[in-house]
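[Meeting: bench + compute handoff]

Bench side (C.D.) handed over the final construct sequence. Compute side (W.E.) agreed to return the predicted structure before the next meeting so the bench team could plan truncations. Sequence as handed over:
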Amino acid sequence: MLARCDGLLSKESILKQGFEKRLETVATAGKDVLVGGLKGVEKESLRISPDGLLAQTPHPAGLGSPLTNKYITTDFSEALLEFVTPAFTTTWEALRCICDIHQFTYSNLDDEMLWTASMPCRIQADREIPLARYGTSNVGRMKTIYRRGLGHRYGRQMQVIAGVHFNYSLPETFWPAYQSALGGEGSLRDFRSDHYLRMIRNFRRMGWIVLYLFGCSPAVCKSFAGAAAKLPSLNADTWFEPWATSLRMSDLGYSNQNQSKINISLNSVDEYVRDLSNAICTPEPAYEELGVKVDGHYRQLNANLLQIENEYYSPVRPKRIARSGEQPTAALRRDGIEYVEVRSLDINMFDPSGINQNTMRFLEAFLIYCLLEDSPSLGEDETQEAARNHTSTAKQGRHPEFRLMRDGKAVRLRDWAGEIVTKVSAIAEMIDRHDGDDSYVAAVRLQQKIIDDPEATPSARIVAELEKTGSSFFELTLGMARCHSDYFSSISPLRDSQAALLANEAARSVERQTDIEAADKISLDEYLQLYFTAC
C-alpha cells in the first residue's frame, strides 16, 4: 500500500522520513497497539416543521432535559438538537449508537423532522431563531446568556449552522509502549499531552483534506443573510460556490473574521491554556459597546474577546472531561489532554445519521498519521498559511486550478492529498492486521478515489443534483429530510434495552435538572462573579 506509481510519493521516499521510523517503532510495540482507540460522535440537527421551516416549539418533553441529558441536548437554539454518543472502541458501535439516538428522537418529534444539511433551513430573520433554554438554575441561565451573547456577536443565523464532531483518543496501552519505544523521559501525562499536540498541529496543517473529502455544504438558502449574498446565484432560492466543499467552514460560517485577533498557541499545553485564558479576560471594545447587563437584562456573559472557552472556533481542539463546575482550561491544566475533538465535519446529507463508518475509519487513521508525522512548532507565518489553506479549500477546493500553499510554495491539492493518503494507508494496514479484514484500508482507498475524481466528492454530488433537477437547496434538503424521516420509521424498532436506556435517561435528566435548581443558594450575579473569578 505504500508504493504509488503516479509520482506523488514512492515507498523509497517515505522510508527516508521520520514518519516511517515512528511507524516502525509503533509496529514493534505490538500489532494491538493502535487497536481499540475510543471514538465518539456529537451530531447537531435542526428541528423543522413539516414545511421545512425552523421549529418554534419547545424542546420535546420526551427527550428530557437538555441541561442534563447525556445523550440528547441542544446547542445554540432550542431547535438545534445535539446528539452525543459515549466513547466506543469500534466505529460500528459508535454508528449504531448515533442511529439509535436518531430513531428515539424521531419517536418523540410528532410531525417534525430533522434538517439533513449543515447550512440551515429557510429562516427569515434572526429573531425567528429561539435561544436554547435550560431552566431556572444559575448554570442553566448562564448557558442561555452565553448563547444570547453569541447571537449579538456573530448573528443567530451563523450559530444554527450544524456539524458533526468526532472525538478520538488512542488506547491507554499505546502511551507507555510508545514512550518506552521512543526513549521518552518525564511523566506519561506530559508525554501524552505533547504528542496529542503534535497530532493537533498537523491536523491544522493538513485538515483541509477533511473539508475536501467530507465537505457537504456548497450551497445555501437565500434566506441566509450577510456575506452569502456575495455568492453566485444558482437559482431563485439558492446561492452557491461552484467549486466549494464546505461553506460551513469558510469565512461564511465558522472561519469568520470576528475572531481574527485571537491567536491560540498549539505548541504546549501551558501556552494553549495561557492564550485561551487571556482571551477570556481581555476586553473587546466592540463587545463593550453591546453592554453586558443592560436594564437588568444580560446581553452577554462579559465583554471580553471570548465569553468562555467554547466560543473559540477551531477545526480541532485538545480536550479533557471536566469535573462538575470546572472550566475546560482548568481540566487541561490539571491532568493534560485526554482526547482530541475534530470539529470540521459537515453533516453528510446522504447518510441518515449524518456520518458513516468509512468517514470515522479514515479520520482515525488520519489522526494517528498526524501524530506520527514530523510536527514542529507552529509559527505565526505557518499558522496563517494553514488558515488560508483551510478557508480556500472550503470555498474553492474542487477547482481544477486550485493550489494550496506548502512552506510558501504552491502545490496541487491532489499531489499533497495523495502523499497524505499514501501514509494514512500504512496506518490503516496496521489496524486491519489485528482484525483480519480490510475495513480501514478500504475506507482509505475510497478516499483516494475521491481525490482522483473531484466529481465524486459529496459537495460535487450536491451541486450536480441541484443543477440536474433545477431544485433549490431548500427543496433538495427538505426532500432528503423526508426520506430520512421515513427511513427511521421503517427500520426495525429499537432494541428494548436501548429504548429503555434512552427513555430512562430522559426521565432522570428532568429529575437532575430539578435537583440543580433546588440546590441554588446564591444569585445569578454572584454565580457569574465566582465563575469568572480568575479574570
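W.E. noted at the follow-up: The longest strand covers residues 38-48. C.D. will use this when planning the next construct.
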